[in-house]
Amino acid sequence: MATINLTAETFGATVEQNGIVFVDFWAAWCPPCRAFAPVFDKASTEHPDIVFGKVDTEAEQQLAATARITSIPTLMAFRDQILVFSQPGALNSRQFEQLIGAIEQLDMDEVRRNIESEPASRA
């Protein structure tokens, strides 16, 4: 699957309706964003079972603000509607493939248990 453009209108449904979603927050004027784009696009064709979405932070300023994007590129990964990764900076192909593998291998039952125990640990 090729990358898809995400907007404020499509972002939530995309995350809700797909098992794994990678989101690249970018802007055309950003050199690191332009350098990461081919890595992201290549991964999207090599992993057709994963959704790869791009958010143009210039066109979608409110969505970027809601996602608390302060630096671009920022890469987010959602699995089963849970944000499991968020990090600014461009990755090379090897790093991105390692991240994809790690997200695929996550024990989501353990992730959910950790989320459920967080409020108790803050109290």
Automatic annotation (TrEMBL):
Keyword Metal-binding appears in the UniProt entry: no
The UniProt record lists the keyword Metal-binding: no
UniProt keyword list: Disulfide bond
Sections of the chain in a coiled coil: none
CDD domains for the chain: TRX_family
Domain Thioredoxin: 2-105
SUPFAM superfamilies reported in the protein's UniProt record: Thioredoxin-like
InterPro entries, per the entry: Thioredoxin-like_sf, Thioredoxin_CS, Thioredoxin_domain
Name this polypeptide is given: Thioredoxin family protein
